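Morning F.,

Quick status update on the modeling queue. The single chain you submitted on Monday has been processed. Sequence for confirmation:
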Amino acid sequence: MRAQTLNLIGPSDIVYIVRPGVLDSRALLAFTQGQCHSLALALAERTGWPLVTIESADQTCLHVCVERPDGFLIDITGAHTAAELQQAAPETTVRHADESRLERLVREEGWAPPVTAAAHLWVDAVLERAENGPALQPLSSNTLRRTIEPGELRIRFDWAGRPELKVFVQRLEDDHWNSYGVAQLPKDPELGVFPIDFTPLRLEQITEAWLSREFDPAKARRKLIAAAVE
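Structure tokens below.
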């Protein structure tokens, strides 16, 4: 039986497909790339801890989390010091925030509307990770990778959870990868959004469809020849 999933709206016509309450690659992507503010709001509602933003030098908000009473910052990746987050995102500032700041992110900066009620489904698991670990690298999400060997070429796909995949090629006897280009994900024809089901199975499906329709071996060979000349 297929596991239950939820759709979380992200920015730029992206919808993240996630499993309720499960701390996997799907959740890590959704709550670092598009809905971190929803999880922060849910954590704040549960614990009463203050909201915190990670902002660049021009005061662009990069991330939202909460501050535990011991000073650790809590998000989907676990518990980290402010210095650890600033090391992961250099030249940033940690600021206390309120809900009006998050409202401006949606109203003025293109962030997706928060889905706080849904984010509550992950609060227990996030608090457990924050208390007992293991913490993940701050401000990070996974990159899924698939490598195949059709014919005389080796092809690698890197997917960071966006509506496109990076494609690299190399000869079988080489160890240097060369950029081929990108493989674009299709929008859902009925909903007009990019459904991001961030799993190895979905990556395999996407890449098989792209290979059958769009991969050009001649273009790949030209890329390799050009790289060899440089």
